[in-house]
Amino acid sequence: FVDDCYGYNHADDLGADDLLGDDSHGSICAGLVGAVSNNGLGVAGVAGGDGGKKVPGVRLMTSTTFGNVDTAWFEEALVYGADMGADVSSNSWGYTSPGVFPASMRAALDYVLADRHTAVVFAAGNDGEKDTDVQFYPAFYDDVVSVGATDNADNRASFSNYGTSIDIAAPGVDIVSTSAFGYTQRSGTSFSCPIVAGTLALGLALARRLEHHVDTNNATAAARDYYEDDDDDDD
After folding, report:
1. What are phi and psi of 43, to 5 degrees?
2. Catalytic residue positions, numbered
3. Which residue of 21, 95, 116, 210 is 20 to 30 Å from 105, comparing CA positions?
4. Residue 234 scores a pLDDT above 50
């Protein structure tokens, strides 16, 4: 669709008629980015604006790849969002087998990153694995922002993949957000990812007001340096 601002159900080929798919996973992620802040309702998204002061927040577009009938068309969803003008692409999914990285996905990412200049954020995955042992794509791809999860004590969440390929980490344990049927609580790097994506959106908004360029490296430069190396424990 030309100038689409709502999204598309790529998995089931339903346009914007049914963006929910097979779960509230996307609704949870969307709330973490864009739930309206300071309006006395539910939760507040990272880039949800200010409902009390009538300050608008981020605009969201949904690309459904986990449908009711099929799970597919990830490359199409990435490209479609970027072509429709997305500045930040938040992706709470990844291939479940180590090393899997289809050439078509690499080509889609290269197009979105280089030609559309969209910041692409991926959840690092929930296998508790170190990246020198196994590599889960697309989060392992150098040019995307890979996000791990921290717990309530600001330590690595036990399930979070980790290593030097992880660019940044954000809260990912017992996260409360919107769902398709109200509110819910979940854990996973899937929910760390939109927190970082929302932060990048805020940085982009500020950079535009100041007429500056936003660089995804700015986010990692401002974060606390934390790298966990378990090699010393391997006896």
Report:
1. -120, 170
2. 3, 25, 190
3. 21
4. no
pTM more than 0.85: yes
54: left (phi over 0), alpha (psi -120 to 50) or beta: left
- The position carrying tokens 């798919």 is 21
Q: Assign residue 93 a region: left if phi > 0, alpha if psi is -120 to 50, beta otherwise?
A: beta
Beta-bridge partners for 168: 147
| Cα–Cα distance measured from residue 120 to residue 138, given in angstroms and rounded to the nearest whole number | 10
> pLDDT tens digit string along 113-140?
999 999 999 999 999 999 989 999 999 9
The DSSP secondary structure of 164-184, one letter per residue, reads: TT--EEEE-SSEEEEETTEEE
Strands (E), the chain: 7-9, 62-64, 88-91, 119-123, 145-150, 168-171, 175-179, 182-186
- Location of structure tokens 């150098």: 142
Residues 6+ apart with CB under 8 A from 135: 98, 99, 165
Q: Which of 199, 153, 143, 146 has the alpha carbon at shortest distance from 173? A: 153
Share of the chain above pLDDT 90, in %: 61
Reported as a single tens digit per residue, the pLDDT across 197-232 is: 999 999 888 877 665 555 666 666 667 666 555 544
Contact yes or no for 118/82 (Cβ under 8 A) = yes
Closest CA to 34 of 178, 192, 173: 178
Q: Cα separation of 96 and 2, whole Å?
A: 33
